[in-house]
Every structure is written in C-alpha cells, then in structure tokens.
Amino acid sequence: MRSAAAVQEHAGAGVQPEVILEVKDLRSYLFTKRATIKAVDGVSFYLRRGETLGIVGESGSGKSIMALSLLQMEPKPAGRIVGGEVLFHGDDLLRKSQGEMRKVRGRRISMILQDPQTSLNPVFTIGNQLAEAFVTGQQESGRGRVAKAVVDVLRKVNIADPERRVTAFPHQLSGGMKQRVVGAIAISCSPDIVIADEPTTSLDLTIQAQYLRLIKQLQDTTGVGVIFITHDFGIVAKMCDRVAVMYAGKIVEHGPVRSLFNHPSHPYTQALINSVPKLEERTERLYSIPGQPPAPGQELVGCRFAARCEFADERCRQEYPPQFEGLSRESEHTADCWRLEDPTWRPIPH
Amino acid sequence: MLRYLIKRLGQTVFTLFAVTVIVFGLGRLTGDPATVLMPVEARQEDRARIMELWGLDQPLHVQYWRYISNVVRGEFGDSLQWPGRDALELVLLRIGNTLELGLAALLFAVALAVPIGVLSAVYKNTAIDHAGKFIALLGQSLPHFWIGIVFIWIFAVNLRWLPTSGRGTWQHLVMPAVVIGWFQVAALMRLIRSAMLESLDSEYIKLARLKGVRERVVIWKHALRNAAIVPLTYFGIMIAYLVVGSITTEVVFSWPGVGLLVVNAVTARDFPVVQAVTIVFAFVIVLANLIVDILYGVFDPRIRFE
Amino acid sequence: MSEAQASAVGAGPTKARLLWRQLRELPLLPIAIILVVLVIPAIFAESLAPHNPYSGSLRARLQPPAFLGGPSEFLLGTDHQGRDVFSRIIFGSRIAIAVAGAGILIGGTIGTTLGLIAGYFRGFAETVVTRLVDLTLSIPAILVALVVAAAIGARFSAVVAIVALVLWAVYARQVRAEALKWAQSDFVARARVAGASHFRIIVRHILPNIANTLIVLSTLQVGFVIVFEGSLSFLGVGIPRPNPAWGLMVADGRIHVVSAWWIAFFPGLAIMLTVLSVNMLGDWLRDRLDPKLTQV
C-alpha cells in the first residue's frame, strides 16, 4: 500500500496528483441475435497519475469489456460502445479514429491480459515480439538499439539471463515467465497507464505473490498508473490505492481502499469482503453470496443487486438508487444504495 | 523431432510396401499374368525372357519375391509398345516434365488460395467472402478434361494468346497449370480461411492490436504466420491430387509427361509401363508426404523444439 | 425478480411459419439445376429425348446446334457419328446417377459398417481399419483404375467397383471419428448397463446420430464420383463406347473442337453444372446439419 507521503512525493506541493484518466458514464453493449447485453451500463471512475485503481467484480460483471472499451477494443462484431466519454489528459478517446487509437495503444496506455499461455504469439520469439513493441511505439529504431532495449526491459521484469532468453519461443517459458514478458511488453514504451486484466488469475499461487510484487516495483520506479482488474478482494487490499466495485455493468461502490474496507457501504461490497477467507479467523464454511448475477440480456430496472440483497425493498427493485457521497467522512467514498439515505446505516448481515 | 521423423519414416516404408502388394495383386487379377505382361504376338525368346524375369511359372510367393526384388532394382521389364526400351527408363525420362507441371500448378493454387482465403476471413460474411467461396467452389466443380478443352478453344484457337498443346515455353505451361491448380484452390482456401478465423480470434492477436500494431501487419504477419501451418498438412493430400489431375490434363494438352505415358500404355495394354508408372507415382506421393511432414515439423516451433 | 428467467425473445412463431421460413432458405437454384440436369432426364429419358442416343446418320454428322443456325431437330447439334448431342446428354444422366448411386451405396455401406466397428469396438479392429483407410487414401484412385483397366479393360462394373473402393475409406474415416465420440456418451453407457447388445446399441443409438454426417458426406461425394467417372470415361478406362457417358462424349468431341466445339462443350457443361450444384447443396447441408464436418 503506497503511503500518502509517496503519493505526495510524486505529485509535489502536498496536493493529490492530477487526474489523467476520467471515465464518464461509459456504456458498452453487446448486440447479439437473441438479446442486447448491457455489459457496461454507465460506468464512471477516474485515475490519478501514479496511483493504482482496483476494479473488482465477479466474472460477468463487465470488467473485461469495460477495460477493452477504454481503448476502443470492444469485442467485434457484437460489441459496440454506445455512449460516454473516456478523457485521457482531457482528450476523449472514444472520439478518436482507429488510426489515432493505434498511437495510444501500447504507447500511452497498455494492457496485460489474463492468460499468459495464449497472450503471446507461439510462432515468434519473445525477442521478436518485444522488439515489435518498441518499434511500433517508435521508442527505438535500429537493430542494435532495439536489441539492447529488449534485453534491458527483460531485466527490469526480473527475467534472469535475458540475452539468452531473447531467442526463446513462448512455449519454452513457464507461465510466470510468460506473464513477465507480457508485462515487459506493456511497459516497454513507458506508458502513462497500464491496465492489468486479472494478470495473476492464471498463475500458480506461489507465483502470484511474486508477480504482484513485480508490478508494485515497476510502479515505484516508473510512476505508471495502474488499473488493476480482479475478482479477488484480497489482492485489492494489497495492491490498490482506491477501488471501484462493479456489479452487472455498473459501479456500485467506490473509494479509497482503507475507507472501503473499514466502512463498506454497499451490501455487495460487504458480501465480497465476507467472502475473502481470513487466515486469522477459523470459519466453519466459506461464505458465498447466495443467488446468481442477473442473466445477460435481461432487461433490468432498479438496483441490479436487489434480487440477492437481504436489505432490498420494493423501491430498490423498481428504481435505481442515486449515488451517495462522502461516506465515512471521505469525500471520495461513494456508493449507490437506497439504504444510505440513512447516513448511519451499514450493511451488517443478520 | 527425431521421434516424430522416425515414426513417419516407418509409416512411409509400410505404405510403399503395401502399394507394391496391391499392384502385384492387380497385375494378376485376370489369373494369368502371362496374358497381361505379354502381347499376343511376342516372339518365343521374348516370352522366355519375361517368364524368367517375373518367374511366371513359379508359385505365387516366389513370384512376389521375384517381383519385389525387381522393383527394388528398378527392373520392370521392357515396354511392350517399344520393345527394347526399358519401362522404367521411359518413365524416368518424362517424370521431370510432370513434376514441372505439378510445381507450376501448386504455385498457382497457393498464389490464388492464400489471398482469397485471408480476405475471406478478414471480410467474413461479406460479398468478398461469398465471391471467394464461389470462385473456389467453381474450381472444384470443373472437370479437368473439360475445362482444359474449353480453355484451349478460347485462348488458343480463338484468341491465339497461348499455344494449343505440347511443352516448350512458359506459355505452354500456363493453361495446364491453371487447370490443375484451380481445382485445389477450393480446399486450400477453405483451410486458410478457417485457420485465419481461428487465429484472428485468439488472445495473441488481441495483444498485438493492444500494442498498437497496424491492422495490415496483424493480419499478414501475426495471423497468417500461425494460420499457414494448417494448410501445410493438406499439401500431402494435395500432391496426390496434383498427380491425379496431371493424368487427364496431360492428355488434353499433350504434355509429354508420365500421365500421358501411362494413359497411352493402358490403351495399348503395355503393362510393364503401367506397372512402372504406378510404383513411381506411389513413391513420389509417399516421398512428398514425408517431406511435407518434415517441413511441418520445421515450421511449427512447438514441434521443432521439443 | 429471481423468477424472471423470462427469455429475451418473445413467444416464438408458429410451427408452420417456421417451416415456411426454413423452406424459403433452401438453396433453390442448385436443387433446380440438379433436378433439371440430372434427376428428371434420368427418370424420363425416353420421353424427353427427341432422338435415339445410339444411332445417327452419317449425313447428319457434325451439325451445329439449332440456335446457331443448324437443323432445328438437333437442339445442341450432332456429333461425328450423326447422333443428337442433346439426346445423348439426357441418356448420359442415367449413367451418371447409376454410377454415383451404386458407388455411394456400396462404398458408403461398407465404409460405414467398418467405421462403426472400428469406432465402437476399438482395439485390433480399429487398428486394422485405420491402416487400411490410410493406405486406400494414399493411393490415387485413378491410378488404380488405370491399372485395372490395363488388366481387364473398361467396363461399368469395374468403374463402380473402383468408386466403391475409394469411397469406403472416406466414409470409414468419418464414421469412425463420430462413432468414437458417440460411444463415449451417456445414453450409450446407460444402454450398456441396461444390458443391450452391441448390435442394438450401434443401430439404435449411434447410427441415428451420425445420420446427418452421412447425408452431408454422401451429397459431397456425388460430385466427386461424377467427375471421377467422367475422367475415367474420358481416358477410355471407364464406361465403354458407344454408351452416352458424358466423359466419353467430351473425349470424342476433343478431336473436333476446332470445327464442332459443341460435341465436347455441352456434355462437359452438364457435368460442371451438376457437380457445382451438388457441391453447393452439400455445403448448404453441411452448414445446417453438421458444421463440424471438416471438409477438404
């Protein structure tokens, strides 16, 4: 967890660092023959320079589609961004052409995908794929300089003996190493933001911790901002400065990590926190949230979580709740829940 | 990689062996190989020589042994049409021509199938895709012998752009190569299309795009390089089809290859030549398959570095 | 809210409407061509053909088609023996269907049977069958036909036999793969537990499931057989003269292509149209019934 002092240091002058990414009411739908799936249904958040924002949600909450939509890479042919703004340094990415977006991708904003087994092209060496990242991002030119840059970045991601590894094919590397290479590709052009979409989910548990440490290390040295997408609240606690909780295409709660953990204000957040097994406690059973997320394509009104929420009433089912701010005296802590009309209310389970 | 090679080699040997058995059996179908292997008007000493060579008065297994040792030594006897000319020699003289035609056809097929296949995949379900499918389907439905004649009539007789028949300049090669090659375009293009579709759908393509790589490079470098491995396995079958196609096509265009040779030999009941051609063809096909499999191993890094 | 598993699509259309919609999606052009060029002439040859396909008068030889200025009784002209090309093509369709039908029936039956045995019983039977299939498919059929013809001459039965010899392997390979898959399924296991005999399981449970594959495969093979028979006849090792096999007609017409191109052109066109239509139908069927069928 980065200390406030570290954040100050990067920003200078004792104020919060500038906001470099602002997402406003992003809507990205999937249009299939059978139904229209509102995968991302009005999502808003922001990211400051150098900070780590966690996006948490179950699978199917729309996190991955949202991440891809930020770079206009929504899955074709069904996906289409239907509304909202993605302001990167004040510039709306959604208004850019594909040609302009290509200059952003990899260079200003890069992404790490979930499964290292399939992320790398099996027929090209990792040296080749890294070199391409440098050349495409116009960071380097000339065989010699590119080759050196490749070796350097491999060293930065803690791959031993990088000179030899450069000629290796992906299938010759372990899963953890592959994911490091993917990480290397992501930071090769010194981007402002790295979007990490469940980067450790496919890795062995023992390797996960190593990889998370690597991400933090890279952040400390380069000051890059990270959007960390995960379903694991435990990782959020370790890695993130702020966190946004996503459910059925909407962000239901959002705020600094400490504040969220100490005062979870949305019933779903509380449930998620409960489901993280704590080593110190002895629990009889693992807690899991009863019920299912809404079926994709289903037309919904009202709060999306109402069906599974023990605090829901008729109004919750009919009307989508407004956003309540300033929870637990943190200006940045917000949540969308009708119960919060009562400022002292907390989603304590019975 | 070595284990893979050895396995393939073993299969090759087995197939060749089986082919010789089949040809041997077919040759003795009528029950009396003497009628098959010797013309009615053969002289007494020729008869004796042929009886000696094939052991025709011996029991079957002795015959087969004699047969195999002959084949291995390349001894097929003399042609019945041209006594005094060794059957195998006749075949080997012309095999180069047939291979030349086959290669040209292969190049044509690949040159046509790759762009059509890639574009069909990239522009899936659009007019381009349907047009590509139709061109391919058309090629597959055109009988070689007919379209060859039609081509001759259009391009040689009427337009006078190309020669009617025979071998000589590259112009002689064009029509027969196109006729044979077009047939293969359909299957090849379908393979490339589906391989491309799968490749384009993969995570590594997504990552390449996320790197900011230009779409043209994504398609023709990243996706195609992966997709290209798939049709390679079809090359083996394709070579067999090229051989088959060359037979009728050589007849239509009077191309002096092995196909024309064998058809004439069949009409003239020149069994030694027919036998020689069959074994050589089988050998070429099997060998080509082996080479293709080796190439496959070379091109797929996952097999090369095991 | 949890009972709202309501499907996103409203109440479905009536059964009749669905059927009509499906019928409209049939590939009508290919089917029409197949009927017109292959099926109807084969059945009604005697009524449809204006002339006898076997006899011609030398006075009427090499006449151009009626629409090109020739005598009006010969729609597509006459060949070098004065025979009416149109009538010969009509009767030729019978030969094409006969060879294709017989070949596919025999080859398909043998191949399916062996494929089922190989896929269901596995073990030694499977090894033998797969080896035989590989071997058969690695030897070009035309070569076999040529060798046989060199030995015993061209005849109808030989053509059918060779076709069957090639097709059985194609069927066996496909059926074996499918049988393998179905043999592992749940209801087969249940039937086995219930004590059903192997034969009963294969016929009652596995066979109906591979019916789609068989239909698609057979349709796709028709085209191949017609071209193959055409090639054999063209080379003189298929259907013997003077039968009006389309391939034979093309061969005869080849020598006259400069002066009388119609002799070779129209029979070949018949082959091409038939095969193209059959292939299109086969493709369409495959997309509907069995998209997994890998085809080359």
Walkthrough of the structure:
The complex is a heterotrimer of chains A (350), B (306) and C (296). With 350 residues, chain A is α/β, with parallel strands linked by helices. Chain A has helices spanning 4-11, 63-70, 98-104, 116-119, 126-136, 143-156, 162-165, 175-187, 205-222, 233-239, 257-262, 267-274, 314-318; strands at 19-31, 36-48, 52-56, 79-88, 91-92, 109-112, 193-197, 225-230, 242-247, 250-256, 323-324, 334-336. The two termini of chain A are 32 Å apart. In chain B, helix 6 crosses helix 8 and helix 8 crosses helix 10 (215-227). The longest helix of chain B has 36 residues, at 87-122. Chain B is flat and about 80 Å long. The mean pLDDT of chain B is 82. Chain C has 10 helices and no strands. The longest helix of chain C has 38 residues, at 198-235. Chain C is globular, with a radius of gyration of 24 Å. In chain C, 47% of the residues are buried. Mean pLDDT of chain C is 82; it is low at 1-10. Chains in contact: A-B, A-C, B-C. At the B-C interface, helix 1, helix 6, helix 7, helix 8 and helix 11 of B face helix 4, helix 5, helix 8, helix 9 and helix 10 of C.
Helix percent of chain A reads 25-40%
Oligomer: heterotrimer
CATH fold label of chain C: MetI-like fold
Give the largest interface pair and sizes.
B-C, 56 and 47 residues
Mean pLDDT of chain A: 85
Could you give the topology of this structure?
The complex is a heterotrimer of chains A (350), B (306) and C (296).
Chain A: H1 4-11, E1 19-31, E2 36-48, E3 52-56, H2 63-70, E4 79-88, E5 91-92, H3 98-104, E6 109-112, H4 116-119, H5 126-136, H6 143-156, H7 162-165, H8 175-187, E7 193-197, H9 205-222, E8 225-230, H10 233-239, E9 242-247, E10 250-256, H11 257-262, H12 267-274, H13 314-318, E11 323-324, E12 334-336
Parallel strand pairs in A: 3-8, 3-9, 6-7, 7-8
Antiparallel strand pairs in A: 1-2, 1-4, 4-5, 9-10, 10-12, 11-12
Chain B: H1 2-27, H2 33-37, H3 44-54, H4 60-73, H5 87-122, H6 127-141, H7 144-158, H8 170-200, H9 203-210, H10 215-227, H11 229-253, H12 258-267, H13 271-299, H14 301-304
Chain C: H1 15-24, H2 28-48, H3 85-121, H4 123-138, H5 141-152, H6 156-183, H7 186-193, H8 198-235, H9 246-254, H10 262-289
Helix pairs in contact in C: 2-3, 2-10, 3-4, 3-6, 3-8, 4-6, 5-6, 6-8, 7-8, 8-9, 8-10, 9-10
